[in-house]
C-alpha cells in the first residue's frame, strides 16, 4: 500500500504519517520541509509546491493521497497532476466551513459559506472541497475536523487552560452557561484518516469529538491539575470592554465563543462514529496536554491566551 501525503512535516501531517507507517504503509511526503522533517521511515520529496514541475517526482499510481492545504495555488495544481492516478483522496477540511454556528447538533448537510474571498480560511477550504469533488467524485473523502488538540499543538489554544490552572491564583474564565467544548485529539484524527481510505470511506464527515458542557470542561481541568483556587466567571460584555478577545490569539480566553457562534463547538459526530471514528475520553487528552505544557513551560510566551500581567489587570478591574 502506497500513500502520498501533501505535507507531512507539520503537527497534524506528522501524526498522520506516523500512523500510516505503524500500519505498514509505504509513505512519501511532498513538502518544503520548512516546519521540520518527516517521521523516520517516510520518504520526503523536498520541493516548493508552487514551483514548475513540483509534482513530477511523485507522479504515478497512489492508493491514497492526503491533502492538508487550503491554498488554491497548492490544491488545484495537485489535483491536476495527481487526481487521475489516485485510487482514493482525503482532503482535510474544517468545521469552520459552515455558514451558521447557531444550530447545536447540525450535521454535514448544513449550509457552507460561499467562497468569495479565498484569503479567508473558511472560503479557501470550501473552494478546496469543491475543486476536489469536481475532479475526484466518489473517490474523495472530505474530513471536517473540529478543534484539533493534543501534545505539541502549535496554536496554544486548548493547552492554555491546563497550563493556566497548573499555576496558583484566581483564574479569569468566561461564563459557561450555554457553552460547550468539542475537540478531537490529534492522535484520534490521524488514526482515523490513516484507516478510513482502507475501509472505503468517502463523502463528507465532521471529524469531531464528544460535546462537553463548558462547566464540566473546567471541572475536568481542575481535577487534572489539582487546582485549588478560584475560577472567576465574567460576563461577555465585561470581558470585551477590557479588550479580552474570543477564541484564540493574543489577549484571548481560548475556546470562548460568542453565544451566536457557540454551536461551532457542538457539531454532530454521528457520521464520524459510524465511519469508525474514535474520540478518546477528554481526561486522557487533558493528561497528555498537561504533561506537554509542563515540559514546554506553563509560563512560556504563547500564541493564544492572556499573559500573567494581562490577566491580573483584568481581574483587578472586575473584582
Walkthrough of the structure:
This protein is an alpha/beta fold and about 325 residues long. The protein folds into two domains: about 1-150 and about 185-205, Rossmann fold, CATH 3.40.50.720; about 150-180 and about 210-265 and about 280-319, Alpha-Beta Complex (UDP-galactose 4-epimerase, domain 1). The chain has helices at about 10-20, 70-80, 120-135, 160-165, 185-195, 215-225, 235-240, 270-275, 280-295, 310-319, and strands at about 1-5, 25-30, 45, 65, 90, 140-145, 145-150, 170-175, 180-185, 205, 210-215, 230-235, 245, 250-255. The strands form four sheets. Strands 3-2-1-4-5-6-10 form a seven-stranded parallel β-sheet, with helices on both faces. Helix 1 links the parallel strand 1 (about 1-5) and strand 2 (about 25-30). The model has no long low-confidence stretch (mean pLDDT about 95).
Number of helices: 10
Task: Tell me the radius of gyration.
Answer: 20 Å
Residue fraction in strands? 15-25%
Number of domains: 2
- Counting copies of identical and different chains, the oligomeric state is single chain
Q: What profile does the largest beta sheet have?
A: 7 strands, parallel
Unreliable runs: none
Short characterization:
The protein contains ten helices and 14 strands.
List the keywords.
seven-stranded parallel β-sheet; 319 residues; single chain; 33% helix; UDP-galactose 4-epimerase, domain 1; Rossmann fold; alpha/beta; three-stranded mixed β-sheet
